[in-house]
Amino acid sequence: MKTIAFIIPPTVELLDLAGPVQVFTEARFYQFKINIEFYVFQSNPVSTCGLGFGTIASFSDAELKDGDYVFVPGMDQNYVRSPAFRKEKKFFDWLKDCADRKVNICSVCNGAFALGEAGLLNGLECTTHWRRVDELQQRFPQTKVLTNVLYSKNAGVSTSGGVTAGIDLALSILKDLAGAPFTQKVARGLVHYLRNNDRKKEVIYLAFRNHLNIKIHDVQNYLVDNLSGATSISNLALVAEMSPENLKRVFKETTGISVSGYLTQVRLETAKALLKNPENSLAYVASRCGLKTASQLQRILK
Known about the structure:
Elements: E1 3-7, H1 14-29, E2 35-39, E3 69-72, H2 77-81, H3 83-86, H4 89-100, E4 104-108, H5 112-117, E5 125-126, H6 133-139, E6 144-145, E7 151-153, E8 157-160, H7 165-178, H8 180-190, H9 214-225, H10 233-240, H11 244-255, H12 259-274, H13 282-288, H14 294-301
Parallel strand pairs: 1-2, 1-3, 3-4, 4-8, 5-6
Antiparallel strand pairs: 7-8
Helix pairs in contact: 1-7, 1-8, 7-8, 9-10, 10-11, 13-14
C-alpha cells in the first residue's frame, strides 16, 4: 500500500494542504487503499490564516519507500524569502534523499521553492503560482519554469500552480494510481470537474467536464456508468429531466461536443481499456460498449 506524506510547513496555506489531502481522503471513501500521513519540519506550525496545528511527527520519523509520495504545500512568501527558510538544510537534504530512493516529490504553489533548495528542479520543467514564476526562475536558473499550466509532472518530481491547482495535480496522480474512471468518480464526489493541462491528452472520463451544469453532469455520469444499457436520446432526456431536443442543444452548448459524439468517445475509451485484456473477444467488448456487433466496434476503432 502506498503512502502519501504531507509536510505541514510554517505559515502553510491551508487550501494548498487541504485540497490534495481531500482528494486522497475521498479516494479512501471509495475503498482505495492508501495511507495518508502528516509531518512537520518545525514544531507547532501555524497557517497563514492563524489556525495552528497540534503535535505532529517530524519528517525525520517518516518511513517512506519506493513509489510513495511527499507533498510540500505552499507557504507565506515572506517566509520563503527569509534566511530561516534557507537554513532548513536537514529538511531539504531529506527531500533529496527521498527522491534518490525513488519517493515521488510533489509541490503545491511556492512549495516548489523547497524542491529548488533541495536541488530537485535542476534541469527540469516546473511551475508555481503565477505571482512567483519569475522569482522561482531567478532563484533557480537551472530549471525551466512554465507559465499557464496547472501542473508539471516529471519522473519523480511534480509541481503545481497555486491553491486549487494542487487538487488538479493530486487528481492526476490518483489517475496514474487508480485509473481514469475511478478518478472521475472521486472528482465527482468533490464536485471538482477535472481540468487538464492538455485536452488532447485527456481521456473521455475526464474531458468535457469543465462546466457546472448538474443535469449535463448527470447525463455524462449515466453514460459512463451505464454504457451497455439504455443510451437512447429519449432515455437520456429522462435522466436530464429535459426534452430530447433541449438536451441535445444544452449538452452541445455546455460541453462543446454533441451527445452522440460524447457517447462514441466513451465507447472508444471503454473499448481500448477492455481490449488490453487478450481474453476479451471483439463481440464481448462490443456488447460491453452498448453495440450490437463486433463490426460496429471495429468502425469506431478505425
